[in-house]
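Q: I'm writing up a methods section and want to include an example of the input and output format. Could you take the sequence below and give the corresponding predicted structure tokens, formatted cleanly so I can copy it straight into the document?
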Amino acid sequence: MGGIIILCGIVGKPNAGKSTFFSAATLIPVKIAPYPFTTIEPNIGTAYVKIPCVCREFNVKDNPKNSICINGIRYIPFQLMDVAGLVPDAWKGRGLGNKFLDELRRASVLIHIVDASGSTDEEGRIVPPGTYNPCKDVEFLEREIVMWIRQIIMNDWQRMIKIREKEVDEILLERLSGLQVTKEHVNKALENTGLEGKKLNSWNEEDLINFCYELRKINKPILIAANKIDLPTAEDGIKKLKEKYPNEIIIPCSAEAELVLRRAAEKGLIKYSPGDENFEIIDESRITQNQRKALKIIEERVLNKWGGTGVQEILNTAVFKILKMMVVYPVEDINKLSDHYGNILPDALLIKNGTTARELAYIIHQELGDTFLYAIDVRTKQRIGENAKLKMNDIIKIVATKARK
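A: Here is the clean output for your methods example:
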């Protein structure tokens, strides 16, 4: 039982810190080097959103099966994918463009790692900090993805404009289904661009680009991770980003600082949990002078100044704010909060906001959805019907009829 499968793609130009961010979020060692195209094959790993667990509210000792609970904090897994750096005109096949744009087809949300310090140019080459405007990276990446979607549509354009027996949304949906596009996505993009009811053979280039832009926003929403805040010039870069893109979600971060802290915690050198505002050295005698110096820099330049590394905030924002997910805890025994085997609060499921009780039953198991009778809200002990919308941190028991043999 794992809830809805979420795949979050990490995108950006070479040397912006994508692989470092991936390693920090997953603790999977990947090849990291200061030159373009270090990542050749996409890396896929497990990252976690972090929330207070309901075990605290009920004062119980849980034993999770699909997630992790540490000191009353539940870490719930989802998939993270790091692809090769994109450069301008990647959609035309420049660099490793087409191959890795295609890797993003399954992604539900994109985290754009931007070098906010301005120390790498559009190709990912090292330049003096502050000499490159990070806003250019946002512009170029948007264009690359939009032109990639346009190219997918244009590959079959002549056949598409001759189809008479289908509506425009059906034709486009058929062409774009490989991007995890739904009919709702297509219709919303058509509505937002004023293209509803307009036949494809009357679309001009501007219509097509506007449609692709709207579809990108709906189907592949982007969160901007303003990376390298440990460098002094990042503050100015973040100011530029926020001034030019006031409606975008922009979160300052230091992937390198998070990676150092997580590795130090993994080795038992410090006490640190992802997203914490500070850390604690466990044993001074085990820390070398260089390690102490590195931790001091992180403390001064990142934690004290920015209130954290930003990595965990980015992961939580991508899942909960952008994808609008929530967490529910299904149980069988409403008194013990356990499953059939006695495991207490065994599963924390990531599901879409607005999910109904019956839809949850189907997420758990097809047969449970088919034989659904009602659900029980464990907090209130009240029955709720199949169309009742669930809420964040609900603890739910599904009651069903016995399946026919």
